[in-house]
Amino acid sequence: MTQNRINTHPVLDVPQKELVSFYWNKSKLVGKKDEMISSALFANNIKIFGHHHKDGSAQGIFCANGQCAKCMVIANGVPVKACMTGVKENMIVESVEGLPRLPDVHEPLPISNIEHLSTDVLIIGGGPAGLSASIQLEEHKISTILVDDKDELGGKLVLQTHKFFGSQEDSHAGMRGMDIGRMLAKKVQDSTYIDVWKNSTALYVFDDKKVGILKDGVYKIVTPKVILNAAGAREKFLRFKGNSLSGVYGAGAFQTLVNRDLIKPTQKLFIIGGGNVGIIAGYHALQAGIKVVGLCEALPACGGYKVHEDKLKRLGVPIYTSHSIVSANGSDSVSSVTIAQIDKHFQVIEGTHKTFECDTILIAVGLESVSEFTEEAQSAGIKIFSAGDASEIAEASSAMFNGKITGLKVVQHFKPDAKQIPESWYEKAEILKSHPGPVQKIEALDREEGIFPVIHCKQEIPCNPCSTVCAEGSIKMTGDPIKGRPRFDGECKGCMKCLAICPGLAITLVDYRKDKDNPVVFLPYEISNIEIKKNDPIDLVDVDGNPLGTYTVLGARATKDSNRTQIVRVKVPKQIAQKVVAFNIQEKAVTKKLTQKIPLDQIQDDEVVCLCERVTAGEIRDLVKKGITDMNQIKAISRAGMGPCGQKTCGNLMGQIFRAEKIAQKDIVNSVRRPLYIEVPLGKFANGGQ
């Protein structure tokens, strides 16, 4: 049971939990009480949960968020989603081979009254935006129900082990995401006017201005005066050969397994997508002791923050820009990935193919807003606000501040005389959600005496904790106080607070006081499960990951204020002292491309668009070429979008095919959305599920 568990982590605590026995296809296994079935299976090295009824393809984890059904299993005779169902003592879990069988019903369900409730505000989503809005509503004593489908508030914040960017004053920059999430959650859970419903899913906003909610498995109906949609975003997917293999999934699923459930789901990972989501997932993988083979990005430059990208490079992860995935290779599960360079028209350049051994491919190619509840509320005539990614895709630091503003907008709806939102807040909100600036040259300091920080930021991004934590006031932001590049000018006493708080690990400290020709450099380090200790040789690199030579560690330890960031000390010649930023921890053999050819039987024939119903891009393309541009008709013919996820994944992929076939948006008829966010047993509506 322990082979795929994370038993030590440089940032996360590893709690001891009660063990339970359960059965998988009649084999007795051990899991941790109430952990998700999917995580318990992964811990026991079981990553295929069944086979599709249409073509026998392997099914496993995909979204880990309850929105699809790729992880369907039979638990105690009932089909359930493995990622949303806790394991219990002696639970009998079976794989789904073909269509899941329905449980026998021996007697009719009793009909009972379903509880109806009213509230001033219903907030859908307990992530950064929903929590920040809730705090404002609590302060103004407005009755609110906050619903979230997880057993812990915080949304994706609780999956983030890295320190956050943004403004220290307004979005807690410098704190780790998981700590921010739990801090905000505590404020909300300790409130008087916010009724928190965890393990609760908003199903639909009905035209009679009521909202159906499944609370702890019990169906309830809530009538709100106002809805605030803070439901976040879902990940986009990609079309490529082999995209339906077990071992292909998104960053959210990966981070859930690694950072929430402390499961090591892979030995060798390859990442598709160079935005912040993909880059950060790569860093989380390294923290979990997972080898990161590489990352490819279709654009000429990664879209994520340069300090995030450089952080991966410095640790030994190669990044291939102007490259895209060609195929995931394997029979049931991923065994390798093939990428290739692409031109400005995103067409593959022949002869540039590269294949790498890996067992998991992480897809991080963007997000789309969960806007269903906003559209449904507007149709029903309910006053609706939206915040965070449900309104506009941005960083979590932006979502927090945006949620605060939106919460006050809701307050003003009920209390028009409430204090107006300052115009400066809107200006700050624009800064926090702004895209990174152009990459600039790092200016070397004309100083070789004393002790001082060297700041290796190349790009203007919303991030200022180093300037706010400097006790001497010697680090200042050039230009904007949040987004300007930090610059050191003044005195330094070597407190190292700026090193410890920098989210990009982009500040080093150089000490010339004892030896001007061979100063000591202090380096921040957060992968302490790959232990670095005194007298170890380390391969130093510059900001771009270029080698600077091998030198001996003088010592490594976390400081009182470093929040588990270790400070590694190394003595180097003065010629490279201000160039050193980090050291490589990953062997080059990990990232080496394969030389042998992939057998043809390990390359899938076509890209799958609808994972639920196994509909390929070729099938959709043929229908479009016949003149069919009504997605409802395509669904009726092919079943694309008819599966459990309700077109949450394939809708975007079908749109890509329409664009490739030069179909104008005005000629496309979108599918009629199904009237429930997720599938629900009919018995829940008969008697509330009690």
Tell me about this structure.
The protein has 690 residues and is α/β, with parallel strands linked by helices. The protein folds into four domains: 1-104, Roll (Ubiquitin-like (UB roll)); 116-233 and 369-432, FAD/NAD(P)-binding domain (3-Layer(bba) Sandwich); 451-590, no CATH class; 606-690, Arc Repressor Mutant, subunit A. The chain has 17 helices and 35 strands. It is globular.
Structural class: alpha/beta
- Quote the CATH topology of the largest domain: FAD/NAD(P)-binding domain
CATH superfamily of the largest domain: FAD/NAD(P)-binding domain
The figure for the number of domains is 4
> Residue share in helices?
10-25%
Number of helices: 17
Strand fraction: 25-35%
Report the CATH architecture of the largest domain: 3-Layer(bba) Sandwich
Radius of gyration: 26 Å
Uncertain residue segments: none
> Whole-Å distance between the termini?
35 Å
Number of strands: 35
Shape: globular
Largest sheet features: 7 strands, mixed
CATH class of the largest domain: Alpha Beta
- Mean pLDDT reading: 91
Walk me through the topology.
Elements: E1 19-24, E2 27-32, H1 37-43, E3 50-51, E4 58-59, E5 72-75, E6 78-81, E7 91-97, E8 116-124, H2 128-139, E9 144-147, H3 168-171, H4 177-189, E10 194-197, E11 200-205, E12 211-215, E13 218-229, E14 233-235, E15 248-250, H5 251-260, E16 268-272, H6 276-287, E17 291-297, H7 306-315, E18 319-321, E19 323-329, E20 336-341, E21 354-357, E22 360-363, E23 367-369, H8 372-380, E24 383-386, H9 396-414, H10 423-432, E25 451-455, H11 465-469, E26 475-478, E27 485-488, H12 497-501, E28 507-511, E29 520-525, E30 537-541, E31 547-558, E32 566-571, H13 574-577, E33 582-584, E34 608-610, E35 615-616, H14 617-625, H15 631-638, H16 650-660, H17 683-687
Parallel strand pairs: 1-7, 3-7, 8-9, 8-13, 9-10, 13-24, 15-22, 16-17, 16-22, 17-18
Antiparallel strand pairs: 1-2, 3-4, 5-6, 5-7, 11-12, 12-13, 14-23, 19-20, 20-21, 25-28, 26-27, 28-29, 29-32, 30-31, 30-33, 31-32, 34-35
